[in-house]
Specification:
Blueprint lengths: L2 H11 L4 E5 L5 E5 L5 E5 L4 H5 L4 H4 L1
Parallel strand pairs: 1-3
Antiparallel strand pairs: 1-2
């Protein structure tokens, strides 16, 4: 299967290539339909997570 056929097949299959990740706990918050793989960072609504405001950069 050629790459253009794979892209068309994935577009028709309803794959959600965008992922929203919590910047604190790294849990997946949601997914969304994008044209390519994309990561977005936000904050989740879990009170235990937001109480600890450490970020991914702080953990590295």
């Amino acid at each position: 299967m050629m790459q253009s056929e794979i892209v068309k097949a994935s577009a028709n299959s309803g794959l959600l290539l965008g992922t929203i990740i919590c910047r604190h706990c790294k849990n997946i918050i949601d997914t969304l339909d994008t044209n390519r793989v994309a990561l977005f960072y936000s904050e989740c609504k879990d009170p235990n997570c937001n109480a600890d405001k450490s970020t991914i950069e702080d953990l590295d």
